[in-house]
């Protein structure tokens, strides 16, 4: 019989490529991961891995087994959801991941509504960038998460996860008010305020500028949109900000709407859509989410 925990390790290895990366992501030691994968090979009776230098490549049998692992893990999520639905009332913890503006704008009213409907359910929120969500969901560290994607940075497909659309919001070019109106192309020579490299917000700005025919010259790297707008207001650069990040901008900032959007989605492990806690959380979000509109 194949061990489900070892199948999870094989699935992570297929995505990360090295034993060390799997160990770091799942807080194991590399030797423990190697031992568990060796045990899985013994259970399977065929070679699942080939080592090429420091990387590990899955054999055809290993690749096929990952496909079966995805199906098995999805069915286990469905089983857990059905068992939870058979219980009376929602209890226990619901581990939620969310990006900063969602934590500030979307979660407070949704959590209040959730507490009113299901007082025995204990939501636990962790703020993180959407780029970190997928491995945390796959590893079981999170149950559900709010993620976003941009027109220029679509979400990468992940067979282990499902998403439901929640809302979308417009994007704005933030420039000093003294500079007058501007387009992206007008700002090719300006200093830019970008998010931290490796985040989706950073990739969005870089790709949007590239689509306008230039590479942005980064002066500052700042993740908090309120701070970004404060720096724009004193002439420290220009930036792209979403609607939720542009609420109550300081004086001295001009916000010009752009023909691009940021979309927010609810993400969870495939097979878990029917889990009553996740369904209740999604319903609370949808009942409380603001309707965004472009600024005049």
UniProtKB/TrEMBL annotation:
UniProt xrefs under Pfam families: HTH_1 (PF00126), LysR_substrate (PF03466)
Q: Where is the HTH lysR-type domain?
A: 2-59
Q: What GO MF terms are annotated?
A: DNA binding; DNA-binding transcription factor activity
- The yes or no answer to whether the keyword Transcription is present is yes
Q: Which UniProt keywords apply?
A: DNA-binding, Transcription, Transcription regulation
Q: Which GO terms describe its cellular component?
A: protein-DNA complex
Q: Does the keyword Isomerase apply?
A: no
Segments crossing the lipid bilayer: none
What does the sequence similarity comment in the record state about its family? Belongs to the LysR transcriptional regulatory family.
Give the protein's recorded name.
Answer: LysR family transcriptional regulator
